[in-house]
Amino acid sequence: EVQLVESGGGLVQPGGSLRLSCAASGFIFGSSGMTWVRQAPGKGPEWVSSISTGGFTTQYADFVQGRFNISRDNARNTIYLQMNSLKPEDTAVYYCAKSWNEHVVLTSRQYWGQGTQVTVSS
Questions:
Q1: N or C: which end of the chain has fewer CB within 10 A?
Q2: Checking DSSP bridges between strand 78-83 and strand 68-73, what pairing results, if any?
């Protein structure tokens, strides 16, 4: 079965950094594009970033462009989200998802892992 396990979240001050990881198993990782999404309490899910199978093509939401970086290590079946210059509005549960397709990810929670909480507060 497909398993996605996020880690690396926590409490950080505005302007700080966190690195999230997502360990994948149960599928051919190198054949799947991957995505990070986030969801704050009372809000709908937001697409954050996507990465192609080999990691050579990436896309970012406007609100994280220049601050976040998505990457992957196919030998370790892991994707990462390096988050810099964090803002309070970045506070959310962050999920990785097994798909490149933004629409599919945002409408189908079955593609998500369990999530990791990121809290940005002074």
A1: N
A2: antiparallel
Distance (Å, rounded) from C-alpha 60 to C-alpha 30?
20
Q: What is the pLDDT of residues 83-121, one digit of tens each?
A: 999 999 999 999 999 999 989 999 999 889 999 999 999
Tokens encoding 100: 């490149």
Neighbour tally for 18: CB within 10 Å: 21
The residue among 50, 49, 119, 59 whose CA lies nearest residue 87 is 119
Structure tokens given for 109: 């929670």
Coil/strand/helix, residue 6: strand
Cα 81 from Cα 42, distance rounded (Å): 23
Asked if 4 contacts 98 with a C-beta cutoff of 8 angstroms, the reply is: yes
pLDDT digits (tens, 9 = 90+) for 69-88: 999 999 999 999 999 999 99
